[in-house]
Amino acid sequence: MKKLAAIFLCFVFVFPLSAGCARDQGSDTPADTTTSDLLDTSASDETSAETELVEDDLGDDIDFGGESAGILYWSDVQNAEFEVKEISGDLIGDAIYARNQAIEERLGVELKWVGVSGNYENQAGFVSAANNDVLAGGMSYDIFAGYSMTAATLALRGCTQNLLVLDYLNFEKPWWPDSLINQSTISDKLYFCSGDISCNLLYMMYTVYFNKDLVTEYNLENPYELVYDNRWTVDKLIELSTDLYRDLNGNGVADQGDRFGLVTRAIFYDSFFWGSGLTEIEKDASGNLVISENWDSEKTLYLLEKLCPFFHESGDTFTATDGAGLYNIFGSGNSLFALTEAQYSIKGFAASGVNYGVVPVPKYDSEQKNHVTILSFPYTMYSISFATQKANMASAVLECYASESYRKVTPAVFEISFKYKYSSGSDDVVMWDIVRESVSFELGRIFTTSLNNLSYSLFRNAVINNAAASWTTNFKVNRRVLEKLIENIQGTMDSLG
Predict the structure, then answer these.
(1) Listed residue (391, 397, 378, 385) closest to 72, CA to CA
(2) What is the pTM of this model?
(3) Which of 60, 84, 370, 426 is in Cβ range 3.0-4.6 Å of 96 for a Cys bridge?
(4) What is the pLDDT of residues 89-117, one digit of tens each?
(5) CB-side exposure of 476: number of CA atoms within 13 Å?
(6) Tell me, what CATH number does 306's domain have?
């Protein structure tokens, strides 16, 4: 029965990732395709879908004879991604189950899942568990699946292998994002990877939700049209949010009982930096890591000079201390915008009854070529243990894992859930595609632990502390520290085998 269920799921989940609603950002005419068209399950559409999804190059003749593949994963992950023991009727959970079954059956392996706490607060425990196993000769784990920050830490400790020299991984396939591979390859070495292999990557995309009813009530410009017309910028978000504060509960205090232009959390402030096309670490002509000159550029200063008064003087914003506070305000219909993670569409906004839409994080200005979507940290990076005696098998497992996730799990999470089940129409379908296609993996975030968290804390704290005026001085104080840390990362990467 389990095999039959898995086969059924494989069939159900196969449909094109690029389906319908192909409206260009600069076009004035939406595509004719409707949501109902996209969800049509006719036989002809199913056949077409199968031909549009890319297959891997693993073939049908790989058989590791029941070899176990030990996977150390972070057990306090926010959304299911790893071990699912049975079919339950949950769309995404069943897709994960089908993926795992396919890996085991295709490769002749047995996935051995071992979970330990490993989120932001528990990184040290996860790193210690991985490191200890490496020191013990790789007795338990072949693959590490950890919170994003831990991957670079493990690499710099020599706990993981260069993925570029292993047999079965093909980083030209669509389940491996070019932006990650290009940015994370240092000194011709790549020690961690992500993409479709981590469904939490999709959940953690930063995005902006807007209340359609408030747009109508206040006769505001349509955010969808602003994106299409290349006018969705930081200035426009601030403009639309201005003068929307209402003391609804009449207590004279701005709190969760009032109406705002924008609600977010302080940990999400950073998304404005990357959304503006700014970076922290770059590669020079020789491929070596260097500090980005735009980190302390006039553009960064101007951005801070926009954001600091917006969050501290306008009265039109509310910075929630937790996710519940953010949800309570936007979910009750009392904020025009909410800047947060994509997972909020599934985890609450849809159930709230708010008539909402979604758009990308705004550009700095209309001169900026593309939107940039950065990721919140709680997604998974995958690595192969330096000490494993089964690196060949482990590389096949990773490739198959990513490939099957691309065809089974990503459609369940992104195509069915985000774009259709929890969206309100064809415009949202287009917006979600823009958000996903603009995902960027900034080296400063990947190596944030080794950069003493300065890669995000400098800008974030400048907004928190309303410190635009002292940005240039503060950055100069920290610049030499950052340069030394970057030099240390480069030196370690050069020395790794």
Answers:
(1) 385
(2) 0.88
(3) 84
(4) 999 999 999 999 999 999 999 999 999 99
(5) 4
(6) 3.40.190.10
